[in-house]
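To the wet lab folks,

You asked to see what we're planning to order before we commit. Fair enough. Below is the target structure as tokens, and below that is the sequence we designed to fit it. If anything looks off to you, flag it before the synthesis order goes out.
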């Protein structure tokens, strides 16, 4: 049994941007759109965009930020995606357990699970969880071998199963997402991935995200 437990594939959450992020160009486009409201296009300079966007954020005029969007690919567990897709103003494309047959060579004939961030790997709780993931993998594979389709065999799968989801939100909705999902009250695994994303977004476009407090850290 020990060898079977060690065979379980465990990974941590991750994400990547699926587009080239040119923060300076994005801010200029947002400024151009926003200044129409005030008919102040004549005040546009090579360096005016950052301050203008900061000002409209302070005023709460965030509808302007809907003119730009960012797309990312997120690898996390399915429990997190159940919460993620509740954000309405967004587009999602997610790895499907109906059509993905994890018993095929394409997936290494194994399931992949996301490590829970709230249990140390040397703890009894983590060991119990890992044992259960191994049993789930064994049962899933046996069902497929017995002729079950992936959409039938998925009934035994866990929220801890790794999934990939492509997410597109406009800037205003990303800001809303970060305010909710990095808060201390958010689920620990949601905070884990939201914190990673927020750090990456701040690095790319600090003007748009530096004012958001990460309450989960």
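Sequence we intend to order:
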């Amino acid at each position: 049994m020990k060898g079977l437990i060690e065979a379980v594939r465990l990974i941590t959450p991750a994400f990547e941007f699926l587009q080239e992020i040119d923060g300076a160009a994005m801010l200029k486009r947002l400024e151009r759109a926003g200044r129409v409201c005030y008919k102040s296009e004549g005040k546009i300079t090579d360096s005016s965009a950052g301050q203008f966007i900061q000002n409209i954020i302070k005023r709460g005029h965030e509808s302007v930020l809907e003119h730009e969007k960012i797309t990312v690919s997120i690898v996390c567990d399915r429990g997190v995606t159940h919460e993620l897709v509740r954000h309405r103003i967004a587009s999602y494309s997610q790895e499907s357990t109906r059509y993905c047959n994890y018993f095929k060579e394409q997936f290494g004939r194994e399931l992949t699970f996301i490590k829970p961030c709230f249990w140390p790997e040397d703890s009894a709780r983590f060991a119990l969880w890992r044992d259960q993931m191994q049993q789930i993998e064994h049962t899933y594979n046996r069902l497929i071998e017995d002729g079950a389709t992936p959409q039938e065999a998925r009934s035994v799968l866990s929220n801890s199963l790794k999934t990939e989801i492509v997410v597109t939100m406009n800037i205003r909705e990303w800001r809303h997402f970060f305010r909710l999902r990095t808060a201390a009250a958010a689920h620990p695994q949601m905070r884990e991935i939201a914190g990673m994303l927020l750090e990456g977004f701040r690095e790319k476009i600090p003007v748009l995200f530096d004012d958001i407090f990460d309450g989960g850290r």
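Structural context that might help your review: The beta strands are 9-11, 14-17, 69-77, 91-94, 112-114, 162-170. Confidence is low (pLDDT under 50) at residues 1-6.

Thanks,
Computational group
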